[in-house]
Amino acid sequence: MTDPTNQFDLTDDQREIQELARRFTADRITPNAAEWDEKHIFPRNVIKEAAELGFAAIYVSEESGGINLGRLEAALIMEAMAYGCPSTSAFISIHNMASWMMDAFGSQTVKDKYLPSLVTMDRLASYCLTEPSSGSDASALKTRAVKDGDDWIVNGSKQFISGAGENEVYVVMVRTGEEGPKGISCLVIEKDMPGVSFGANERKLGWHSQPTRQVTFQDVRVPGENLVGELGQGFRIAMTGLDGGRLNIGACSLGGAQRCLDEAIRYTKDRQQFGKPIADFQNTQFTLADMATELEAARMLLYAAATKVTANAPDKTRFAAMAKRLATDTGSAVVDRALQLHGGYGYLMDYPIERFWRDLRVHSILEGTNQVMRMIVGRDLVRG
């Protein structure tokens, strides 16, 4: 008989994976993250080291060179790495999402062509859905691919693309047919294909350790074999990928918020005011208690949603949306209170809190805004 007190515990294997990611973060990410942020350094060498642990292909099949783990294990890895740097962890999540799309939906030709170098991170991959005029309404995208013999000719642009200009491979949603979601397909486009160009690196509030640019396609000739999935299947592929992406970005918020809670506990125990540590004041303890409780609740929902996505449960999309909304809102709220507990020092770059405050703010926007998450959940509830 199963011990009921252990039903929500991680397995030994999951704890081992979590510990591996934590050690990697402590050794290679946390000591360098402040410099990456301040100097806008893209740490490609450290990101590539993550591939040696299998973290470039977490849920890619073993046949394609991945480690074939579930979405809960992926969330544990992202959460652990975000403890050091949410921006870097989120970048690795995006690469994983692009690689998984090729493995899950691509032909053997696509897999053979791209996955070996993506699994090792000799090449890095971006996910391209958002456009200058279509963000939340992703099915209104305008980037068009027209058949020319065996090839596709692609014209259009994508906005807010993580890794743009640095990454070699782009998984791009394009319009190949009618308006709306049924006319969208998925193509793999390479950085050095003639007609691919990039805008200036965006000047962002946070996420300074990764480049973000616009990608423009001008008469780009893409081989027909680079189609991922069937014609017209692109929107479904994009949305399926976002279920996992939302879990990962939620996990990045949890990891960053946990770091800030730990920093706040340490700081309030050391900081003296009115003759005693501010951790001794009941108001401080109540604030810390709420931060820890809310963080734990968000974590439990995210882990539950991750198991549903792995199992392909009927309500997986609703749970992924609920978990993403709660984890990212909670993460930002926890970090904000951690900054307040630090007082004026929390506003200084000498302490890590302000970096996490900036990095986590965008998590309520990307992978679908938290308003769209509410739409997804509400629509699913009323439709039964």
From TrEMBL:
One of its GO terms (biological process) is branched-chain amino acid catabolic process. Residues 127-220 form the Acyl-CoA oxidase/dehydrogenase middle domain. Keywords: Branched-chain amino acid catabolism, FAD, Flavoprotein, Oxidoreductase. Residues 232-381 form the Acyl-CoA dehydrogenase/oxidase C-terminal domain. GO terms for molecular function: acyl-CoA dehydrogenase activity; flavin adenine dinucleotide binding. Signal peptide: none annotated. InterPro entries: Acyl-CoA_DH_CS, Acyl-CoA_Oxase/DH_mid-dom, Acyl-CoA_Oxase/DH_mid-dom_sf, AcylCo_DH-like_C, AcylCo_DH/oxidase_C, AcylCoA_DH/ox_N, AcylCoA_DH/ox_N_sf, AcylCoA_DH/oxidase_NM_dom_sf. Residues 11-121 form the Acyl-CoA dehydrogenase/oxidase N-terminal domain. Pathway: Amino-acid degradation; L-valine degradation. Its cofactor is FAD. PROSITE patterns: ACYL_COA_DH_1, ACYL_COA_DH_2. Belongs to the acyl-CoA dehydrogenase family. PANTHER family: ISOBUTYRYL-COA DEHYDROGENASE (PTHR43831), ISOBUTYRYL-COA DEHYDROGENASE, MITOCHONDRIAL (PTHR43831:SF1). This is Alkylation response protein AidB-like acyl-CoA dehydrogenase. It comes from Sphingomonas aerophila.
